[in-house]
TrEMBL record:
<feature type="transmembrane region" description="Helical">
    <location>
        <begin position="233"/>
        <end position="254"/>
    </location>
</feature>
<dbReference type="InterPro" id="IPR039672">
    <property type="entry name" value="MFS_2"/>
</dbReference>
<dbReference type="InterPro" id="IPR018043">
    <property type="entry name" value="Na/Gal_symport_CS"/>
</dbReference>
<keyword id="KW-0812">Transmembrane</keyword>
<feature type="transmembrane region" description="Helical">
    <location>
        <begin position="12"/>
        <end position="36"/>
    </location>
</feature>
<protein>
    <submittedName>
        <fullName>MFS transporter</fullName>
    </submittedName>
</protein>
<feature type="transmembrane region" description="Helical">
    <location>
        <begin position="266"/>
        <end position="285"/>
    </location>
</feature>
<feature type="transmembrane region" description="Helical">
    <location>
        <begin position="321"/>
        <end position="344"/>
    </location>
</feature>
<feature type="transmembrane region" description="Helical">
    <location>
        <begin position="152"/>
        <end position="170"/>
    </location>
</feature>
<feature type="transmembrane region" description="Helical">
    <location>
        <begin position="406"/>
        <end position="430"/>
    </location>
</feature>
<keyword id="KW-1003">Cell membrane</keyword>
<feature type="transmembrane region" description="Helical">
    <location>
        <begin position="182"/>
        <end position="201"/>
    </location>
</feature>
<feature type="transmembrane region" description="Helical">
    <location>
        <begin position="365"/>
        <end position="386"/>
    </location>
</feature>
<dbReference type="InterPro" id="IPR036259">
    <property type="entry name" value="MFS_trans_sf"/>
</dbReference>
<dbReference type="Pfam" id="PF13347">
    <property type="entry name" value="MFS_2"/>
</dbReference>
<feature type="transmembrane region" description="Helical">
    <location>
        <begin position="81"/>
        <end position="102"/>
    </location>
</feature>
<feature type="domain" description="Major facilitator superfamily (MFS) profile">
    <location>
        <begin position="10"/>
        <end position="421"/>
    </location>
</feature>
Amino acid sequence: MSSSPLKRSLLLAYAAGSIGSGLFSTVPGLLLLFYLTDTLGVAASLAGLAILVPRIWDIVTDPLVGAWSDRTRSRWGRRRPFLLAGALLLPPGFVALFSAPVGDPTVSFAWVLGAFVWATGAFTLFQIPYASMPAEMTADYHERTRVVAHRMAFLPIGILAGGALAPMIIKANSGGPAGYRVMAVTLAIIAAVAMLVAFFGTRDAPQHPAPVEATALREQIRVALSHRPYRRLLVSFAVQNVGIGAILAAVPYFCHYTLRGGEEAVTILFVSLVGPAIVAMPVWMAVSRRFGKRVGYLLSVVMFAAFALSLLLAAPGRLALVAAQVGLLGVGFAGLQVFPFAMLPDLVDEDAAVSGQRREGIFTGLWFVGEKGGLTLGAWFVSQVLAATGFVERRAGELVTQPEAALVGVIVATAVVPAACALLSLPLLFHHVESARNRAT
């Protein structure tokens, strides 16, 4: 592991993988629930299960894959074989996810459920080892922030493709099932290329050898969760992701039923989110260098909460105002992505200093349990709010009138839930101790 600056070519190749990650993290979270209820005619309560069950499976496999990558020995190192496997398996699963048969909602539900289990498993194979790599690539406190910042600068490209390009492709292909299928094929190709670039481009990345003696998975989990700063950071991050999952799942409903727009409104809002997020990355890096990661993280959480709550002002005819609010929300969102991932490798180092073992995989696996679990609970929560408030599902082309209670539920899920989750995470962050920062200074 090196403490000298890493080559820009290596950073860019590594960061390219986050385009694929951003695509798969965004599209199901944004469109899958809406696809089920407003294209396939699946009831909201049942549609929520199609999202929840595969994610539970995903949560179970995250620490397993993390521990597996920790002890893998190959000529490609510990992590890179998993990058290749995920890059090859995820695209066909993603295409299948949005190619469900239309007609019987029960059959559509079962198809999406099975395809999502496949896709989430393939994504785990790539994402957990991929996110473990920064802790191995450099030992320098600020260089790790640089590695993560490069990755997060590319992540919005995937988010933009998922959140802005996807609705445009769907509309350009007449919407409905055919539009979703063309969208899935197009984005699957982009994701595959990006993930393969990460695999081939990181062949010279510094990495640690697998340990000679492997610790049992249960013991690794126990040790990781007994690390108090890590546990606090993990819980706060998970709570924030409940809010992010809710706002992602609610945005299509927000655009269609609150703003009275369509796919164009979804695209505009995602451009408004991602553009400022990209610009904000170097700003948050400067804040980190001047005040530390924790302070920057706290500021970004407060900013995210404030502008999420401001969406309560949304109404038809106010798309320009809402886009500006979402742009400022995007600045806070950028910090929520940079800082926790930059702080995670420092905590891995603390564990290694005490235990003498490098357990990036299990720490990262549990980390994504928090992220995916939070995103899943947020989306599931939206489905239950819609079901409880009487939301009427429909097949593509049908016209329905939603009850007033369902319209209120959409705006609450979009504005109040994300703000509340962000604010609930603050107490844990206030108590987080940046011992790595203290050592560096």
